[in-house]
Design a protein that fits this description.
The chain has one domain: Class I glutamine amidotransferase (GATase) domain (Rossmann fold, 3-Layer(aba) Sandwich). The protein contains seven helices and 13 strands. Strand 5, helix 3 and strand 6 form a beta-alpha-beta unit. The longest helix has 19 residues.
């Protein structure tokens, strides 16, 4: 049952990492604040979703929209490949986020995948990934240095949901060393960088299921993707209320 709060509730997946804050040096569930800021700016109510070892379906039942956030690489065992030396995995996070995604898709909850989130969406729906993009493109343009976002121009397919939101072209902040290799039958590529790297995917149909390889939360002056997600979450909540 979706939330009855006045604003659509948007769940944001979190990182479980060792972190230092105040006097503490401990395991923590954390997330860049930019995600919450973007949801608030778009008119939604952000809620952080920690990996508690289960309960994914119950969590999805409390939210109106889901953002699969950025982070470490998806375990390549999930698409039948050995790990590249540059691949850094968090298998426990994969378990949690794949369960969240499947629950959201089965319930019609709107989904926005950001960077790693787009890769989770890709692998969960039968696709595969390029594990180290510089070996394919010959450059590090998509991840120029540690903790440094690259800038990229993205072309979006006419008639796609992404193009309806952003127009035919957009400038983005990116930070990824992996990318889509192949897509499963439920997804289609709808955005590309100048070097041909797939930068956006979506599942055709009325439901909002969109993945972007870039980091829209880093563009505080442009929250159109989050606004579109919040609008879809509001519709989902209203339709769910009418059906109960």
């Amino acid at each position: 049952m979706p939330s009855s709060a006045s604003k659509p509730v948007i769940g944001l997946t979190t990182y479980r990492e060792r972190a230092r804050f105040g006097v503490w040096d401990t395991e923590a569930d954390v997330l860049h604040r930019d995600y919450a800021n973007a949801v608030v700016a778009a008119g939604g109510l952000p809620v952080l979703l920690p990996d508690v070892g289960g309960g994914a379906r119950d969590m999805v039942g409390l939210i109106d929209g889901l953002v699969l956030t950025g982070g470490a690489d998806v375990d390549p065992a999930r698409y039948g490949e050995p790990a590249h030396p540059a691949t850094v995995c968090r298998p426990h996070r994969d378990v949690f986020e794949f369960a969240l995604l499947y629950a959201a898709l089965s319930g019609g909850v709107p989904v926005l995948g950001v960077c790693r989130g787009m890769q989770v969406l890709t692998v969960a729906l039968g696709g595969t990934l390029v594990q180290h993009l510089p070996e394919a493109t010959g450059t590090a343009d998509h991840q120029p240095a540690a903790a440094t976002f690259g800038r990229s121009a993205v072309r979006l397919a006419e008639g796609s949901r992404a193009a309806d939101i952003l127009g035919g072209h957009t400038k983005v902040h990116c930070y990824h060393h992996q990318a889509v290799a192949t897509l499963g039958p439920e997804l289609r590529a709808v955005g590309w960088a100048d070097d041909g790297t797939v930068e956006a995917v979506e599942r055709p149909g009325d439901e909002f299921v969109l993945g972007v390889q870039w980091h829209p939360e880093q563009q505080a002056d442009d929250v159109r993707l989050f606004t579109a997600l919040v609008a879809a979450a509001r519709r989902y909540r209203e339709e769910s209320a009418c059906s109960t």
